[in-house]
């Protein structure tokens, strides 16, 4: 599997691969699609870290990109798919340095063209 492909396996290391955040377990693989609802910058010790909160409609997971202050395209409102190993940190799951792909934005119908009476 190349690093650009997400796993299609049903199990990873003998544990199920979660396809929704609600089904995710700590220390198990997760492959989910959702929307970035919050971004921010943190530090772990002295290391800069970019943080995103991803919501898939069933729950939320924190994505941490250690050593980064930003990730081009991963902004509030971006839809993306991520894969990594979930880790419990407090009430939320966290995925460190996940594999990610930015998804196409939802298509919107074009605005109706208004014509003026002549």
Give the tags.
about 120 residues; mainly beta; OB fold (Dihydrolipoamide Acetyltransferase, E2P); five-stranded mixed barrel
Protein model, in words:
By secondary structure, the chain is an all-beta fold. It has one domain: OB fold (Dihydrolipoamide Acetyltransferase, E2P), CATH 2.40.50. Helices cover 0% and strands 47% of the residues. It has no helices and 8 strands. The strands form 2 sheets. It has a 5-stranded mixed barrel with strand order 3-4-5-7-6. A two-stranded antiparallel ribbon has the order 1-2. Strand 4 and strand 5 form a beta hairpin. It starts with 10 loop residues before the first strand and ends in a 16-residue tail after the last strand.
Which helices and strands appear, and what pairs or packs with what?
Blueprint (H helix, E strand, L loop, with lengths): L10 E2 L2 E2 L12 E16 L2 E9 L4 E7 L12 E11 L2 E5 L2 E4 L16
Parallel strand pairs: 5-7
Antiparallel strand pairs: 1-2, 3-4, 3-6, 4-5, 6-7, 6-8
CATH class descriptor name: Mainly Beta
Helix content: under 10%
- CATH homologous superfamily descriptor: Nucleic acid-binding proteins
Distance between the first and last residues' Cα: 62 Å
Q: Please count the helical segments.
A: 0
Total of domains: 1
Question: Strand portion, in percent?
Answer: over 45%
The counted number of beta strands is: 8
Are there runs of 5+ residues with pLDDT below 50, and where?
none
Shape, principal axes of CA atoms: globular
Order of helices and strands: EEEEEEEE
Instruction: Examine the secondary-structure arrangement and name the CATH architecture.
Output: Beta Barrel
Largest sheet: 5 strands, mixed, barrel
* CATH topology description: OB fold (Dihydrolipoamide Acetyltransferase, E2P)
Give me the side-by-side strand order of the main sheet.
3-4-5-7-6
- Mean pLDDT across every amino acid position: 85
């Amino acid at each position: 599997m190349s690093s650009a492909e997400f796993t299609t396996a049903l199990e990873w290391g003998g544990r199920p691969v979660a396809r929704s955040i609600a089904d995710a377990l700590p220390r198990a693989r997760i492959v989910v699609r959702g929307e970035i609802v919050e971004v921010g910058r943190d530090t772990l010790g002295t290391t800069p870290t970019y943080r995103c909160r991803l919501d898939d409609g069933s729950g939320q997971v924190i994505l941490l990109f250690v050593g980064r202050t930003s990730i081009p395209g991963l902004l509030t409102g971006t839809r993306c798919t991520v894969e990594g190993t979930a880790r419990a940190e407090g009430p939320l799951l966290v995925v460190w340095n996940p594999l990610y792909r930015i998804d196409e934005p939802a298509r919107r119908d074009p605005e109706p063209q208004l014509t003026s009476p002549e």
